[in-house]
Design the sequence.
């Protein structure tokens, strides 16, 4: 299966975000990719919480969701919108991944489980839980005949989630992100390769990158990692762009036979 990742520098306005992401999705599809994946927050990046809330819409109302579902249908590709920031029916915010089939139907939804509530070494304090309600369940979905495990950004630091996705049959793990520059420099590639090695799965990690309109800096450096932990393709920068690779899905079974960690895992009592 050929896959392509889109690296973005998403604006603070959804209309501008659609104008930014749509040409890059077209470019990704033009590589021959069957599956295209965009980063976290593909519809909106706005640090000012009050301003962000005024721009949150439902799936049916969000211009990026609607524009990208139409585009997936036009291009005839699977499109994982890595995440969009939306308003639920109860008025709460949610950080949600949407898998769009080639006919434009949304066939998979995953709400980010782990909220990024941290005090960073550079002095930034971030509280994602103040704006969004966390999800409660892990999700896989089929892309043609291949099972894809869904996750978003900070989920990357919780290996039990990826173990559960792999045990559910996922051969590919999507980890769309908007990593900060500080944490990206320190941990991004190491964590992505670790998740691939632990699960014997392909890791698809499209990222936000660069200095955004709201002043934040994200790390970029999107990666595709193979099930043996090898970096198959990378963007060595934080600018918008496209990254593509051909995946030999049989490599998953070879890696899992060589190191049968999933099969050998045992439950145990705590200390």
Sequence:
């Amino acid at each position: 299966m050929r896959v392509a990742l889109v690296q973005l520098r998403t604006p603070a306005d959804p209309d501008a975000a659609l104008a930014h992401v749509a040409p890059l999705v077209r470019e990704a599809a033009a590589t021959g990719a069957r599956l295209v994946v965009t980063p976290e927050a593909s519809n909106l990046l706005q640090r000012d919480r009050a301003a962000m809330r005024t721009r949150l819409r439902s799936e049916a109302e969000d211009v990026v969701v609607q524009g990208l579902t139409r585009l997936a249908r036009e291009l005839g590709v699977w499109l994982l919108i890595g995440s969009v920031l939306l308003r639920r029916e109860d008025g709460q915010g949610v950080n949600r991944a949407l898998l769009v089939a080639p006919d434009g139907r949304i066939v998979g939804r995953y709400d980010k489980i782990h909220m990024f509530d941290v005090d960073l070494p550079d002095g930034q304090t971030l509280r994602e839980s103040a704006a969004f309600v966390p999800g409660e369940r892990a999700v896989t979905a089929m892309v043609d005949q291949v099972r894809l495990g869904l996750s978003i950004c900070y989920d990357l630091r919780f290996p039990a989630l990826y173990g559960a996705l792999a045990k559910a049959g996922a051969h590919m793990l999507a980890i769309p992100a908007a990593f900060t520059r500080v944490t990206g420099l320190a941990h991004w590639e190491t964590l992505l390769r670790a998740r691939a090695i632990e699960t014997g799965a392909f890791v698809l990690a499209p990222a936000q990158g660069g200095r955004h309109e709201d002043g934040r800096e994200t790390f970029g450096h999107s990666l595709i990692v193979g099930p043996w932990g090898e970096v198959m393709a990378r963007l060595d920068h934080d600018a918008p762009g496209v990254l593509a690779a051909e995946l030999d899905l049989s490599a998953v079974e070879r890696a899992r036979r060589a190191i049968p960690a999933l099969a050998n895992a045992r439950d145990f009592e705590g200390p």
About this structure: The CA atoms of residues 10 and 20 lie 7 Å apart. The chain has one domain: 2-263. Residues 2-263 form a domain with the Nitrilase/N-carbamoyl-D-aminoacid amidohydrolase fold (CATH 3.60.110.10).
